[in-house]
Design goal:
By secondary structure, this protein is of the alpha/beta class. It contains ten helices and 14 strands. 39% of the residues lie in helices and 22% in strands. Belongs to the ROK (NagC/XylR) family. InterPro entries: ATPase_NBD (IPR043129), ROK (IPR000600).
Length: 325
């Protein structure tokens, strides 16, 4: 068994946790969080993280000597080799922060940092739906869309930590905007992108005199809730059904590129896919069947993420890179 500190850093909140890892199991011994906006910047936030970690250790009767490693999961861009947060768009002012060095010097244990998609891939590979796979892809669909790649039994992050940015792939000349690019995979398939897509479909319906259950007027388009769109689709609303059909088709198109290029054993889809898989899977599978190479697709499973809402905690632990206990 090994004791691992985890730090999950986000633009909304930061979580600090302690996990005891044994094989493919994690026993979480303590967890706390604070709102990122309540701190005055990176230095202050890191100080709070260290204080919270100290409190968790004390509550468990542990000292610095009992910590085997620490992991940090944070939105990119990062320099994972040097342990530096570069300039994440969701963390304004966090520019070139040597966070791994600071935490390592405090606890005297090795510290590693990964972007949230890579950390999520490590988590699902070590503890979730991609266990025992030699080649796996984890894709997170939240506000944005990004992938973590496990290739030949190890994390592949690319030359400068930019591997896996599948959300930037343009799937159509026009469409919802994601990653600053209209018609991108993030635009069509992320939670934020599907909200845009639902707005485009609603506008089309409303301007032609048709109604939609999730958007009463043109003034409401900017405030569309994807959960309501999903509920409407399950009740047969035409605009909502079209929204998820299009999202599923473009998801299938994006995944077919990954299947053909990387030949994975499993693709694990997180975020909104887990909540709306019943709506996305049929059109996704139809496009995959038409677009992907049959031999590559025949060995690839596409499954929802297994770790659910706890993936951030597991990702922070997995980011430590600690070997089996």
């Amino acid at each position: 068994m090994k004791n691992i500190l985890g730090f999950d850093i986000g633009g909304t909140k930061c979580a600090v946790l302690l996990g005891r890892v044994s094989g493919q199991n994690v026993d979480f011994l303590g967890r706390s969080f604070f709102w990122t906006k309540d701190t005055s910047g990176a230095d202050d936030a890191i100080s709070v993280m260290l204080e919270e970690a100290e409190a968790i250790l004390q509550n468990n009767g542990l000292t610095h000597k009992d910590i085997d490693a620490a992991g940090i999961s944070c939105g990119g861009p990062l320099d994972s080799k040097r342990g530096v947060i570069l300039s994440p768009p969701n963390l304004p002012g966090w520019d070139r922060i040597p966070i791994a060095e600071r935490i390592e010097s405090h606890f005297g244990a090795p510290v590693r940092i990964q972007n949230d998609a890579n950390a999520g891939a490590l988590a699902e590979w070590r503890f979730g739906a991609a266990q025992n796979a030699n080649n796996a892809i984890f894709i997170t669909f939240g506000t944005g869309c990004g992938a973590g790649l496990i290739l030949d039994g190890r994390l592949y992050s690319g030359t400068n930590d930019m591997a896996g940015e599948c959300g930037h792939i343009r799937l159509s000349a026009v469409g919802p905007v994601g990653y600053g690019k209209a018609g991108s995979m993030e635009g069509f398939c992320s939670g934020g992108g599907i909200a845009q897509l639902a707005g485009m479909v609603a506008r089309e319906h409303l301007q032609s005199g048709r109604s939609t259950a999730y958007c009463e007027s043109l003034d409401s388009i900017e405030h569309i809730d994807v959960k309501k769109v999903a509920e409407a689709a399950r009740k047969g609303d035409a605009a909502a059904c079209k929204t998820f059909r299009l999202a599923g088709e473009y998801l299938g198109r994006g995944l077919s590129i990954l299947v053909d290029c990387l030949n994975p054993e499993v693709i694990v889809l997180g975020g909104i896919f887990g909540r709306c898989h019943d709506l996305l899977v049929p059109p996704m599978e139809a496009v995959l069947k038409d677009e992907a190479l049959e031999r590559a697709l025949s060995v690839c499973r596409i499954v929802p993420a297994q770790l659910g809402e706890a993936i951030g905690d597991y990702a922070a632990i997995a980011a430590s890179g600690i070997s089996d206990a």
